[in-house]
Each structure stands twice: as structure tokens, then as C-alpha cells.
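Worked example 3 (structure in, sequence out).
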């Protein structure tokens, strides 16, 4: 569509459109969780590669996961230490997670709070969003909003070039909870987990 204001982007996201905005790592391609199939189509992404549910606050994300009281306390402790920031926690999904988020394994969901004021400002108004990097699958993440606008003409792209320069360009670390009370690092990114 075009580069748009934050107000227009928020309205578009709430209406179920694909949007793109900066995060603390790489720019996100995002939409409402129940519209996640739009991301798979736009990116030409294989359905066996799940999306991340990103939110403005931890409180907005905990309803999307389920575990014992002890597990929730452990997860929240890790979240307090590393969020907001480039750490994605892959946890057991609650019934609130639409199957479109993770078609091949709907039992898990990756959640994250970005260390980026603009991203959190957007999601404070839209609620948690299904997200991934803004690029065609198998290609390098795009780093500028103008590049994203050119590659995805049907996406509402935030018109703020200066914020993007604050992004690290390094993807988030992805850590998956294992039933034996430990974490498996699925992707080593910016955060080095210490327990």
C-alpha cells in the first residue's frame, strides 16, 4: 500500500491487515494471530516454520501459554530477566493460540516482548500480534522500511526510517521449554541464556 503513520498502521492491524514496523532485532511482518495465514502467504513460508507471538507486556502474553504454577513462575522469572529484549520463549500453547500460528505443531507457541518503544506502543493498542521477519522465506531480513514497502506493496509499512537504525539486525535467541525442566536453544541469537 504505502508507508503510513503509526495511527494508520494500528487501525490497519486491528482490521486484520498485514503490517510492518521496527523491532529491536529486525523489522517485523505482523498481523492478528487469527490472520497468521496471511504472513505465510506473503512470505511464501513453509507452514512447518511457526510464527512468534509478540506483545507489549508479559501480562498480555501469559494467557497464550499453559503450564503448572511452578512452570509459570520459572517462565516469568526468565521473562523478568530478559524482557523486553531479543529472547523468544517457546512454551506450551493454551487454547487461545489460533492453529494458524503454528500449523504443524499447535501445541507450542513462541512469545517475546521487543525492546523497542514503537513496537510496544503499536501492540499496546492492537494486542499481541503474529510476527516474523519482513522478507521472503530463505532470503535475508530486510532492514529498511522503504525496502519492505517495495517488496511487500500490499503491507502497511510504518513510515519511520530513523527508528530502524537502532535495531541490532541480530535475530532473537529462541529457547524451548522441555518437560524435564530445562531449556533447549533452537536458535542462538543476541541473548546468551544464563540460569
Amino acid at each position: 500500500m504505502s508507508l503510513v503513520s503509526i495511527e494508520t498502521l494500528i487501525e490497519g492491524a486491528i482490521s486484520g491487515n498485514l503490517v510492518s514496523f521496527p523491532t529491536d532485532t529486525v523489522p517485523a511482518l505482523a498481523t492478528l494471530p487469527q490472520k497468521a495465514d496471511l504472513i505465510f502467504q506473503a512470505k511464501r513460508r513453509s507452514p512447518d516454520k511457526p510464527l512468534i507471538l509478540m506483545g507489549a507486556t508479559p501480562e498480555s502474553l501469559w494467557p497464550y501459554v499453559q503450564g503448572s504454577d511452578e512452570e509459570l513462575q520459572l517462565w516469568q522469572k526468565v521473562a523478568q530477566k530478559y524482557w523486553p529484549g531479543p529472547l523468544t520463549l517457546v512454551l506450551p500453547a493454551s487454547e487461545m493460540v489460533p492453529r494458524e500460528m503454528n500449523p504443524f505443531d499447535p501445541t507450542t507457541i513462541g512469545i517475546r516482548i521487543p525492546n523497542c518503544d514503537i513496537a510496544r506502543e503499536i501492540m499496546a493498542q492492537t494486542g499481541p500480534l503474529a510476527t516474523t521477519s519482513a522478507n521472503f522465506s530463505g532470503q535475508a531480513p530486510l532492514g529498511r522500511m522503504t525496502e519492505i514497502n517495495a517488496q511487500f506493496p500490499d503491507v502497511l509499512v510504518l513510515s519511520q526510517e530513523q527508528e530502524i537504525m537502532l535495531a541490532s539486525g541480530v535475530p532473537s535467541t529462541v529457547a524451548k521449554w522441555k518437560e524435564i525442566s530445562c531449556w533447549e536453544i533452537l536458535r542462538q541469537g543476541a541473548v546468551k541464556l544464563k540460569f
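Notes: The chain has a mean pLDDT of 91. The longest helix spans residues 69-82.
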